[in-house]
Amino acid sequence: MKLHYTMLAAAFAATLAAPALAEFKPSKPVEMIVHTGPGGGADVLARFIAQVIEKENLAPVRFTVNNRDGGGGLRAMAYVVEKKGDNHAIAVFTGNWLTNPLTRAEAKVTVKDMTPVVRLVLEPAVIAVKSDAPFKTLKDFIDAAKKQPGALKQSGGSTTSRDNVVRQLLMRETGSNWAYISFPGGGERIAALLGGHVNMMVIEPQEAGEHIKAGNMRVIAQVADKRLAAFPNVPTIKEAGFDIPNVPQVRGVLMPPGVAPDVVAYYEGLFARLVKTPTWRKYLEEQQFEDGFQRSADLARFMDSFTSQMRDILNEAGAKVVR
Question: N or C: the chain end with fewer CB closer than 10 Å?
């Protein structure tokens, strides 16, 4: 019996002496996948995140952006799912990743096939025209579209992006009609407007900021529940007299399927630290973003409710919903 207790004591001591299992930390550069080309909202945000991580020394490795544009986000989504189990790949997603599969029968994957990490921001938008355009208000643009059905043009992203959903809702509300030109990248959409090839665009303040400050764009309405501090004299769409639902935009981080819980916890913790930095807080204020931080479990629930909400909005806008 004494020998038995001695053996147990030795085993217990060995357990105490054994090193604890090492927590996950990235050991090589982390790939940040975005669905837009350079200059798009997701690209701009991802590159800023990479800068903050490096500046604040939040991770032992660099974060590098991989632009997988095309297919309205479907190409990037499929790429993320193909990287199953990759601990060094994250994706900056937007609301498109939730809405596109709702109307695209060819979509092979949805966000349900990925691993939620964090939600970062909720983002308003503005409706902008070229600074020398004849449209001073959204009503001016709508009236012109009624007089010349199909003649005016709007640049935007995919057909299920917020850009086009707002267009569809406004056209149904007013009986007007204008064309929609889809571009893969934000830079191309902006260039089309500034070059006079299109007449209007729905754009995030983050993307439009420098062009608005330079006087190249005029904001005629806001896609938001309330006026942004940067545009106190510009009405929201509802204030302008058009009763359509506000179309939300969300940005956050997902990972491929099949990653371990401790890997998710690492990135979740990384972004929890990032959103508390003064650099990030200043960025939110400057870009007119709403702090929408959520951890993994809450993000999973949010994605379910957001998808349901957008399904209703797309139906109201007259889109063909397949899921």
Answer: N
Both 37 and 97 in one domain: the answer is yes
Q: What is the pLDDT of residue 22?
A: 64
* 309/249 Cα distance (integer angstroms): 12
Identify whether 158 is part of a domain: yes
Considering the entire predicted model, what is its pTM? 0.74
The pLDDT, as a whole number, for residue 2 is: 46
Q: Is 68 a member of any domain?
A: yes
- Cβ-count burial 233-242 (b if 16+ within 10 Å, e if not): ebbbbbebeb
Answer whether 62's CB lies under 8 Å from 32's CB: no
119 and 135 part of one domain: no
Q: Which domain holds residue 277?
A: 30-123+249-316
How many CA within 13 A on the CB side of residue 38?
1
Q: What burial class does residue 223 get, using C-beta atoms within 10 Å of its C-beta: 0-12 exposed, 13-18 middle, 19+ buried?
A: buried
> Are residues 138 and 219 located together in one domain of the fold?
yes
pLDDT tens string 252-293 = 999 999 999 999 999 999 999 999 999 999 999 888 888 999
**Which 8-state DSSP code applies to residue 136?**
S
Distance of CA 118 to the CA centre of its chain: 12
* Torsion-angle region of 261 (φ positive above 0: left; ψ -120 to 50: alpha; else: beta): alpha
CATH number at residue 304: 3.40.190.150
Residue 308 within any structural domain of the chain: yes
Residue 159 has a pLDDT of 76
